[in-house]
Design a protein that fits this description.
Helix content: 25-40%
Structural class: alpha+beta
Distance between the termini: 45 Å
CATH topology of the largest domain: Aminopeptidase
Strand order of the largest sheet: 3-1-2-4-5
Number of strands: 13
Largest sheet: 5 strands, mixed
Number of domains: 2
Radius of gyration: 20 Å
Order of helices and strands: EHHEEEEHEHEHEHHEEEHEHE
Strand content: 25-35%
CATH class of the largest domain: Alpha Beta
InterPro entries: Acyl-CoA_N-acyltransferase, Acyl_CoA_acyltransferase, GCN5-like_dom, GNAT_dom
Protein name: N-acetyltransferase domain-containing protein
Number of helices: 9
GO molecular function: acyltransferase activity, transferring groups other than amino-acyl groups
Amino acid sequence: MCTQNQLSPFAFVEVEIGGGNGNLVETLESLMPSSAQMLNILRIKTLKLFKGVNSFRFYSYEPLACTIQRSIDASSRDWSDTSRPLFLVCLISTEYSMEGESPYTYRMMYSRETPDPSDELLATEFAKLIGTSNASGEMVFATVDMRYRPFLCKIATKFGKTMDSMGTRTWALYLPKAKADGWKREIKYGRAGKDITVKPLSSGDATTVNSHWKWGTLESDPHIRDQIEKLPSAGVFSNDDLVSWGILCLTGTISALQTQESHRRRGFGELIMKSISTQMIEHEMVPFCEVELDTTASRKMMDKLGFIVAFDAAWMSWPHNN
């Protein structure tokens, strides 16, 4: 066991996530709602919904003297101990290219304590960690809690860059489990309309989903297909034609929600959110989504369904030639 005088310096070390993870999940649950997305990513990892073990790599800011092997087992520390920082980073590697980065990596972070930009040791160690993932190219941080922004701006300067936002400020929203009571039965027995069915998407629907996705490219089609095949999704079909849909993204966020123009204002978006939310709850995840600040109709729908703001967020980046 480490003694008090061994608690310095700190470094980011890999966390081995398995079947037994100590009190990590319970601690994150106690820190809801700001921890909702990291909880979902942990569930995706532990349930092995994506078989590639190296697709999800978790790191924690730990006393280096206690972690000579540069890794720890998740069950080996008390995550509820507030005398030590709780700062988790997850790097999610994909097999497709986007924003000039190949393969594209989602960079997710959660910290119980707001990271201090003036903490040079923390900033240096964080820069070392992300510097292994194509720092010379597009560096994108997904669903960033705005309280992390000053810290990430400091990190950008360590690479001679200026942190920017992708022009996408969002509300990060979560659904309390009790709000979904009765939704599964409603979807199964409710009357959405004649010849209307609600069911999970299939891989054959990937091209349709990708072609309407705001960030969709030719390279992202396999990525969308991969997520449809392995994670919760939902589609509304009219006479077997896909007219509304949504998927769960690798980042634990309900994404790519879309309804064909000819079928809008019929409540199909609500059906999609209810269907995916109930599937997520069955997987012990927290229904979680992002709504862009200028999409007032989507925000009203989420409010109606019972979603609550977890935190103000943004996708933040620094560009290639900045």
